[in-house]
């Protein structure tokens, strides 16, 4: 039942008694737009004060709003409509004679509509009289309206609304006339009908790939939160893809970093609700899901091109305790001949949990270990948190002293001194990643540590930012930034919970506006510092993310638990973050917290070998779970899964290059690749690499088979046991053998040529091996593929490379090289053409 929990924040109302007529309130349940999103029990008086309809006569088990907008609700009227060189604009004026039902409603707004490209539309609604916070990320600047538009935009004047229609078939992508625009200082709401129930994205969240439209409220406010359903997690990505009935796709992105909710309802419809900033919408017309992702990354930025080595297998543990224990694990992995490219350390390597230090007693051999890794073609990554200790003796901790000298810490709104929270080192202050001097400060700290330990990448954690307390050690002031008239239903019930005061002072704004941007801006500072220090491509993995994060690094899905359900749900995270333009993504293989077991960890290693970012990591309270911590029989399937990954790394690297250049996904759900096949729309326990490789993991305890779906076409088995065995599918499920100590089912889609390379124990060694081509003809006997290759580490601005296109047609397999700047040796020693019925 809705409106049954006591919630401490109530929207301030002007006192007005209003009762809508029965006719104006005759709205079907599924079409009701929520007028009272708070959760307080005395809802009728507040609802009618707001000028809305009240009807509690519904099933107590559903979430239909009791308080909803009448059909004649007065809001803004559109006037002064006029064309511009970008599209058109107009003024939105709060209807005269109406009483404010929401506190500090803005009297006059400006509507700006930009026809940016033929398939990208931008709609901005801003305060006409004074500026409000806008997200400071770089987006495309257009000088003229595009032509040959694939969409049509219409407006309604009284009350205001706009309608976006797909020109070729008349599908209405958005129609905001279904509910009123509310635009108050700290409460903005806009609703629209949806053309489909098949909605994907809207993260970071834990759940199914297909988002429920059954009164589903999704929360956006970065939080240090163990992933669980119906909670706001580490990142903020208010972007969705809708799959229409005919298989076409569209996308909608709200560029807003304030705390917000997005509510989906079964009509179907969507309501965006935020407590700050502006409304800044992008609409993408696709028409394919991949085209929508490309159009989205055209706006937020295309993903970074990773070095080659992060595509290998990574190993970490919070709880090695010493550098010797860490080093010994590396040596055990080598002795067991299990591929490993990267060794990591969690916070236990630090001296008293202080960033940019290591414990010289317990980790005294750390520099030697890192040197050994490098001598064996391996790499090293360590963790950095944003909390900087402020209680070290003056002159003993440069990270604090330098920050104070440059004045780069977030400030307490009361004292204007650095705000103090509590994280792993105890009392800490927090760098302001919006400060103009943050780049030089952050690089100086990383460089000082690099001179001690030659790390190769950086893992940034706790950057929501996380605070073990609430607000600050001295408390937060009592103002409307700390206690807004309305608080989205965030986990913890308050904006400050487990983070900083909302009114904390950044360089040019307040934490209220930039809280969810912390991770993004730290990624940017870290990536730029790494490139400056190492003169090579950077590698950064961040917990908190925001649109544009893919420009600077990747993500892992946080503190998941060692359960079969979290194993399954990890696939959704991989799919979603690829849609968000962050393809370098993975989950902690075998789980972070709790206790794994041999069966679960084998299955997770088999799946995790095909995460774009493949890392096994867990916490110190749990038992060790590296492959070598299990029986020798368990190590066999783990090793084989990793060797299969390493075999296919040239294909994966090529997909990352395509993502970097074109904004495409690396891993994708079947619904993204086959949107016209309705069977794929609920499948999120299989996924693909690119368009050519289908991955069908075993995800259930005691399973020995997988019920895998194969969209129509030819599919060729890619396992060693059944290499080249063909399935000719009409769009059907097949029962595949997947014994625990066997292989993960992999299938190459007919029409694809997959470049591969004989695997070795790390990428430096495997890159010296000959290449292979796995050629999978379609039903016409044709196939094509591509290989991108370079030295694997040079900055992209000074990077000799080669691209080779492969084409199978008739009886000929041909390669066409381009961008032939790469001068290294590339030897092709094996070609396997599947489906040939007679010997050539």
From TrEMBL:
Localization, UniProt: Membrane
GO molecular function: alpha-1,4-glucosidase activity; carbohydrate binding
GO BP annotation list: carbohydrate metabolic process
Signal peptide feature range: 1-22
Keyword Zinc-finger part of the UniProt annotation: no
Top-level taxon of origin: Eukaryota
P-type domain span: 23-71
Gene Ontology CC: one annotated term: membrane
InterPro entries: Gal_mutarotase_sf_dom, GH, Glyco_hydro_31_AS, Glyco_hydro_31_C, Glyco_hydro_31_CS, Glyco_hydro_31_N_dom, Glyco_hydro_31_TIM, Glyco_hydro_b
Keyword list, A-Z: Disulfide bond, Glycoprotein, Glycosidase, Hydrolase, Membrane, Signal
Similarity-based family: Belongs to the glycosyl hydrolase 31 family.
Protein's name according to its UniProt entry: P-type domain-containing protein
Source organism of this protein record: Ciona savignyi (Pacific transparent sea squirt)
